[in-house]
Amino acid sequence: MTTHLDTSSRTAETDRDVQPHSLATDLGEISMAKRSYGRVAIGLHWLLVLAVFYQLALGLWMIDLPKVPVGLRAGWFNWHKSIGLVIGLLMCLRLAWRVTHALQDDGLKMPRWQHLVSKLNHFCLYLTLLLMPLSGFLGSNFTPYPVKFFGWVLPRFLDPSPELKALCSLVHEFTSYTLIALIVLHLLGALWHGVKRDGVLSRMAIKS
Ligand code: HEM
Ligand code: HEM
């Protein structure tokens, strides 16, 4: 069964057939977007979507938690750190998969500017999703408290430093807002393609 995320029942193949080959071609704007994601890339995409939404909500919620009763705040912080490290590992896996697997040409055409904007958006998403775990992990290492990965104490490799911790926190916070803005842009793009029914959404549809 193929779950299409857009409401269209058309396939990329049929969408391609109805793609106008007129105006954009005449203006020389057509770009071949070589995108045909395999099951691993699609699975990792949706796993990360769930994890990132949860992690962002958790991060924004937990920072206002009271320091008493003792343990409540620390418990949620440790949970956030563990999920964040898993996201970091999944991102490394995804990146490794992406650079070692060439995408097949799925035949879809789109204006060059759209292709460039989406590439830039994806690149920045990768960057921020690597920077978030890195800044969080480094920042936590600059505190006197050890990082616990699902209860397992990770070895400390940096000396505590309030200044460097503050710097990492600033990067973590700024990057989280940048990430939210990038996701909004990404969702607007997805919506746009869904309305146009041009077959781009089907690229990330879960296939069984
Ligand atoms: C993709 C992964 C991550 C996302 C999306 C994320 C998101 C957030 C958000 C939205 C906040 C609240 C805003 C802020 O003050 O920064 C936050 C705070 C925080 N995060 Fe993360 N986080 C991630 C990974 C991590 C990791 C791996 C660690 C540590 C190992 C971590 C440690 C913290 C800490 C300690 C705070 C409290 C504020 C501070 O001390 O900087 N985060 N996170
Ligand atoms: C936390 C939210 C999300 C993040 C971080 C995210 C991240 C990404 C990244 C990094 C890519 C590029 C994949 C690559 O080329 O290696 C991508 C592609 C894609 N995403 Fe998302 N995504 C999110 C949510 C969504 C949602 C909710 C939808 C659909 C409603 C969606 C639909 C797509 C589609 C269709 C592509 C392929 C676009 C193309 O090939 O031109 N994404 N996403």
Describe the protein.
With 208 residues, this protein is mainly alpha-helical. The chain has helices at residues 12-18, 23-26, 39-62, 72-100, 112-141, 162-196, and strands at residues 30-32, 109-111, 148-149, 152-153. The chain has a single domain, classed as Transmembrane di-heme cytochromes, Chain C (Fumarate Reductase Cytochrome B subunit, Up-down Bundle), CATH 1.20.950. The strands form 2 sheets. It has a two-stranded antiparallel sheet. A two-stranded antiparallel sheet has the order 3-4. β3 and β4 (152-153) form a beta hairpin. The radius of gyration is 21 Å and the shape is elongated. Bound molecules: protoporphyrin IX containing FE (HEM) (2 copies). Residues 5, 33, 35, 45, 48-49, 52-53, 98, 118, 122, 125-126, 183, 186-187, 190, 200-201, 203-204 line the site of one protoporphyrin IX containing FE (HEM).
Structural class estimated from helices and strands: mainly alpha
CATH class, please?
Answer: Mainly Alpha
CATH superfamily grouping: Transmembrane di-heme cytochromes, Chain C
Largest sheet: 2 strands, antiparallel
Q: What Rg is obtained from the alpha carbons, in whole angstroms?
A: 21 Å
- The number of strands is 4
* End-to-end separation: 6 Å
SSE string? HHEHHEHEEH
Principal-axes geometry comes out as elongated
What fold name goes in the CATH topology slot? Fumarate Reductase Cytochrome B subunit
Low-confidence stretches: 1-28
Neighbour order of strands in the largest sheet:
1-2
- Our estimate of the beta-strand percent is under 5%
Q: Work out the helicity level.
A: 55-70%
The number of distinct helices, counting runs of at least 4 residues, comes to 6
The appropriate CATH architecture is Up-down Bundle
